[in-house]
Structure to design on (517 residues):
């Protein structure tokens, strides 16, 4: 009998993101052995559009895997995939793309989403599928294609996500995993089957969608062409993998009930792992699958670090590019609560917990005494308060929250770190350097291939670098202000609606300073 120690124990996690694909090789002790990343553009040909070329993304996957394989001294046990969620691509009968990859950031289906959400069945659809009825999701996008591009819609043989397309080309298997499908608005999260009512609304059939499989499904291997292109043996096991959000929980070690994963990059998100699928009564959170007995409940926000970037461009342009440290120092001069100034940070509309493309940003409470430092700090506080609203929705779904683990570009700033702990009213733990979703993908692959007993080992493999505890006085101030943030959203919905109605008659709004990520 062969010595199991001689078997390859390295898995490559392939993370297909919105701005780049990154492949990273890990061993079963969680050590990173090699990595490579390739970027690609996010195209915005019209206002509200955010799409990508699936051919470029596929080429990036092949290139990054090949580069990592070249750096490794020994064989690879398998590949395992992570992907940005909510993408949609229409394929012809030969598997060739008829559409770009329409990303989560695309808002062209805003009116379709609002119509579906306002319908009597809207909340029931959200709670049944786990996916908010929002323009980010494939369901409203399909309705948009049916209504706005009917000839193209009729030509599409299969509707897939970007990872489904990559696996189809690599392995000639038309499959989608339960995690990605649970973020489509088309799958019943209780039965793990395509939802008949959702398919009827979308105007498609089950035959037009990939086969549903578990995230730990192992495909038999690569085609001869792409085995040669990647430098891997053709029989290399390919683990289907999952969505990047649930896998980021693994990457942070947030795999046990009560441990929340929070990330703030350009956008932001908050997720807790649970053992049974559930959505809160008001539909403030999503519920996406990871494995057969692990789900994540949470919410994503559109406006994270992009708000600080906007503050630099709009409020302190003389600081120039790379002014983050100066802006944060400016914000630190203002008091907790920004002297009664509140910012709703909806520069790129918003997702959780309201799940609407309507809202715009707003400052409320502005007085003659406020200065730039108050405006900048209020913007940062607004982001953290929005995450606190998401946390409240997570709790409303019946989830205990006792620990927060955070990551993202904001974590470099002591002010951001303290603001988050104060706004959440909880200690926030910051893991040592990690690769998030690619590490999660690799861990899931190791479980699927029998190299580890369970993804639960993530909790022990991720080392905590620092714990930031809330300041009691600051936390009390933010807790008192939080209901005002929620009330302001509700109060301004009629204004947001009127602004959109008037928009065609007004001068065009300026483009965003950077595309959402």
């Amino acid at each position: 009998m062969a010595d199991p120690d001689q078997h390859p124990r390295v898995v490559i996690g392939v993370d297909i993101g919105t701005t780049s694909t990154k492949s990273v090789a890990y061993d079963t002790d969680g050590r990173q052995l090699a990595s490579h990343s390739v970027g690609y553009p996010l195209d915005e040909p019209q206002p509200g559009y955010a799409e990508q070329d699936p051919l470029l993304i596929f080429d990036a996957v092949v290139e990054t895997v090949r580069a990592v394989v070249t750096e490794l001294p020994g064989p690879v046990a398998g590949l395992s995939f992570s992907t940005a969620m909510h993408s949609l691509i229409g394929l012809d009968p030969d598997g060739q793309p008829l559409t770009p990859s329409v990303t989560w950031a695309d808002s062209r289906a805003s009116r379709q989403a609002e119509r579906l959400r306002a319908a009597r069945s809207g909340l029931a659809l959200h709670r049944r599928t786990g996916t908010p009825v929002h323009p980010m999701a494939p369901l409203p996008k399909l309705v948009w294609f049916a209504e706005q591009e009917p000839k193209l819609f009729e030509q599409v043989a299969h509707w897939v996500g970007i990872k489904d397309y990559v696996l189809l080309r690599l392995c000639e298997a038309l499959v989608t995993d339960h995690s990605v499908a649970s973020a489509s608005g088309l799958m019943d999260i209780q039965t793990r089957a395509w939802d008949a009512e959702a398919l009827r609304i979308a105007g498609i059939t089950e035959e037009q969608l990939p086969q549903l499989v578990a995230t730990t499904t192992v495909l038999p291997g690569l085609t001869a062409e792409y085995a040669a292109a990647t430098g891997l043996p053709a029989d290399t096991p390919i683990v289907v993998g999952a969505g990047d959000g649930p896998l980021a929980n693994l990457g942070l070690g947030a795999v046990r009930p009560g441990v929340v994963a929070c990330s703030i990059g350009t956008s932001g998100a908050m997720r807790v792992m649970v053992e049974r699928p559930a959505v809160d009564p008001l539909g403030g959170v999503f519920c996406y699958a990871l494995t057969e007995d692990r789900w994540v409940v949470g919410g994503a926000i559109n406006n994270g670090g992009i708000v600080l970037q906007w503050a630099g461009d709009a409020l302190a342009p003389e600081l120039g590019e790379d002014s983050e440290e100066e802006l944060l120092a400016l914000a630190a001069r203002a008091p907790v609560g920004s002297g009664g100034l509140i910012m709703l940070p909806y520069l790129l509309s918003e997702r959780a917990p309201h799940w609407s493309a309507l809202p715009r940003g707003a400052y409320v409470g502005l007085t003659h005494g406020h200065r730039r430092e108050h405006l900048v700090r209020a913007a940062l506080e607004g982001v953290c308060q929005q995450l606190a609203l998401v946390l409240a929705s997570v709790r409303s779904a019946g989830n205990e929250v006792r620990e927060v683990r955070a990551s993202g570009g904001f974590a470099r700033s002591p002010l951001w770190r303290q603001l988050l702990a104060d706004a959440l009213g909880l200690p926030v733990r910051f893991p040592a350097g990690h690769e998030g979703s690619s590490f999660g993908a690799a861990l899931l692959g190791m479980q699927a291939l029998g190299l580890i007993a369970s993804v639960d080992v993530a909790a022990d493999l991720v080392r905590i670098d620092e714990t930031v505890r809330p300041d009691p006085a600051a936390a009390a101030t933010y807790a008192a202000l939080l209901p005002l943030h929620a009330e302001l959203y509700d109060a301004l919905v009629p204004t947001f609606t009127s602004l959109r109605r008037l928009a065609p008659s007004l001068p065009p709004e300026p483009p965003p300073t950077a595309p959402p990520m």
Remarks:
- Residues 164 and 176 are 6 Å apart (CA to CA).
- Residues 472-502 form the longest helix (31 residues).
- The chain is about 35% helix and 20% strand.
